[in-house]
């Protein structure tokens, strides 16, 4: 049985990640079109996925949600490294390859960013993207993020070093954006 809906939009629902979702998560995170953009270079077996679920998803240091469209899981999104004192967090997400280009990631990001500012009282949300991931850069910019800088050769992915582009969005920028 899927987890309860946490946030709902027009085309996606963000719901809790449950043990029943682990098979989907393991299958998708081992897809090269997913693991490369999120910076993984080793496969995850079922036990490792369960450990990620227990250590990260079930931890109180972030919000980790399943992105669902028509009740079908299509990806994940989360606010990681939430620092309540500094009122900041980092946005992370991926959408399964077969669901790319449908706007699910953009809608999910808007829902979670709004929740971060409105409900968690965040002042700043950051995100990072590898240099080759133009689709993710466009997604962040469409939500209102601004590229703030580049860390050179930060990760070794798929046989080569990659730059990391850092993006940021401040609460007042989010509130002033055009709807």
From TrEMBL:
Q: Which Pfam families match?
A: Acetyltransf_3
- Provide the N-acetyltransferase domain boundaries: 12-173
* Gene Ontology MF term list: protein N-terminal-serine acetyltransferase activity; protein-N-terminal-alanine acetyltransferase activity
Q: Which GO terms describe its cellular component?
A: cytoplasm
The superkingdom of the source organism is: Archaea
- Which PROSITE patterns does the record associate with it? GNAT
InterPro entries from the entry? Acyl_CoA_acyltransferase, GNAT_dom, Ribosomal_N-acetyltransferase
- This protein's name: GNAT family N-acetyltransferase
Q: Which species?
A: Natronococcus pandeyae
Lineage, uppermost ranks: Archaea, Methanobacteriati, Methanobacteriota, Stenosarchaea group, Halobacteria
């Amino acid at each position: 049985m899927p987890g309860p809906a946490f946030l709902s939009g027009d085309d996606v629902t963000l719901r809790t990640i449950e043990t029943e979702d682990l098979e989907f998560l393991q299958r998708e995170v081992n897809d090269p079109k997913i693991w490369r953009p999120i910076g993984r270079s080793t496969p995850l077996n079922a036990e490792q996925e369960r450990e990620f679920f227990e250590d990260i998803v079930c931890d109180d240091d972030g919000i980790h949600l399943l992105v669902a469209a028509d009740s079908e899981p299509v990806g994940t999104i989360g606010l990681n490294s939430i620092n309540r004192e500094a009122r900041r967090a980092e946005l992370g997400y991926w959408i399964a390859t077969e669901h790319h280009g449908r706007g699910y990631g953009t809608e999910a990001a808007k829902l979670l960013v709004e929740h971060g500012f409105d409900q968690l009282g965040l002042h700043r949300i950051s995100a990072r993207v590898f240099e080759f991931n133009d689709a993710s850069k466009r997604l962040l910019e469409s939500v209102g993020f601004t590229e703030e800088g580049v860390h050179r050769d930060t990760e070794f992915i798929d046989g080569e070093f990659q730059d990391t582009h850092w993006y940021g969005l401040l609460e007042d920028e989010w509130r002033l954006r055009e709807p």
